[in-house]
Design a protein that fits this description.
Helices cover 19% and strands 28% of the residues. It is α+β, with helices and mostly antiparallel strands and 68 residues long. It has a domain at 22-65.
Amino acid sequence: MTSQREKLKPCPFCEGAPNDPQIEQTQADKWNAYIECTRCEVSVSGQFGESSPALALANIEALWNRRP
């Protein structure tokens, strides 16, 4: 299964560019992921219980792109 990656929006605070998402496997089905702004260093992170890293990446990208 191929999933299309979501384009990351600029930082909601300073309009800086985000770093590429970082992901680390912590258990067989758990992933830590985060994205950080290159300018102001604000970040979003989470731990995801997913079967693949692609699903965890999709979740962290959606969190970064979420706006009120």
